[in-house]
Amino acid sequence: MKILILGASFGGMTTAFELRKRLSPAQAEIRVLAKDPRFTFIPSLPWVALGSRRLDQISFDPAGTFERKGIEFVLAGVTRIDPESRQVFTGAGDFSYDVLVIATGHRSANEAVPGLGPIDGPGHSLMSPQEAEEARDALRAFFDAPGPLVVGCAPGASCIGPAYEFVFQIDHLLRRRRMRHRVPIVFVTPEPFLGHLGVGGVGKARQFLEGEFDQRDIRYCTSAAISKISDAAVDLADGPSFESALSLIIPPLAGVKAIADSPGLGNPKAFVPVDEHYRHQRFSDIYAVGVAVAFPPVAETPVPVNFPKTAHMTGQMAAMAAHNIAADVLGRGKKARPLHGECILDMGDRAVLIKADPFRPPRNVARFSEGRRWLWAKKTFERYYLWMARHGRTAPGEWGW
Fold first, then answer.
1. Helix, strand, coil share (%) of the chain residues, nearest 5
2. Which sequence positions are flagged as catalytic?
């Protein structure tokens, strides 16, 4: 059997390793295609922007790891997929498959807001290694000439956590530098209330975040639809404008161009519709995991807020997809489990653990815990995950399943 995996970040790498644990080389030929030569631990990008991490500290070349696991790794960008002929077209040639796993991640839809750069405007973001480094350079210049700061998310954003992390971390850093009094901070978000996070809130997140913003003198605006970003201001669709010497805005996400250019494979936003087993709703030999998967929002909100997709959730999707693919090969039963969420929000001097099971309400577990121990836990987990990934291992226990 030929299993082809598109993407080598959290979803693609985890799926490949989990499949190899379940299927021998005689049972399955596993090939991974990726356009990026390095794996990057994306949750650490806010630290890159703030200068406490370098990209080389949170990334590595996975080619050798795949080779040791008996997995072929091909550096190639996918241009189109033909589900009928089971062909994937790339700049490095065409590849056939018996089973396809789409783990292509996202495309940042920066075009949704004029000026939402860094490519086409002054706004900054954190959604890729290159953008994080660009934001880092802009922040260094900002410290030399401080002024008003706007942090937040554009309408339709789903990855909201990094915006909260950045605003808390920059507040902490400015206070350490005795510069906070020179930097008015405004947080703008499409969420109907702070701590909504695209999942309707978790535990006491709303009360906690509102209290923290008040305590730190961070002005906030909810149900905010950013309409334009300029060098001097961030404008909202309903009229208000916030002065800004530096803005960092998380964009909405869309599926990658290869999915958009493959008729019948994705929805209008180029995300892949799947069933509870992460199998495509139309093509039974195609699976999808991670950010590439189409999820509906938890509920309609005045300004669109999309359902989040975290690395933790991607690990669960990848493990379930791998189990179910192997189950088909081995003649065993499939499994499905509602996604649960567990993440740590860095606040600069401490952190918050947010746990929700399942991620969509109503929930069996909704935990919200703060403390300095969680900041140490976040830093430790970064090193642990990178060590595991370099050695071709997946995180054990409930993190991965």
1. 30, 25, 45
2. 159, 343
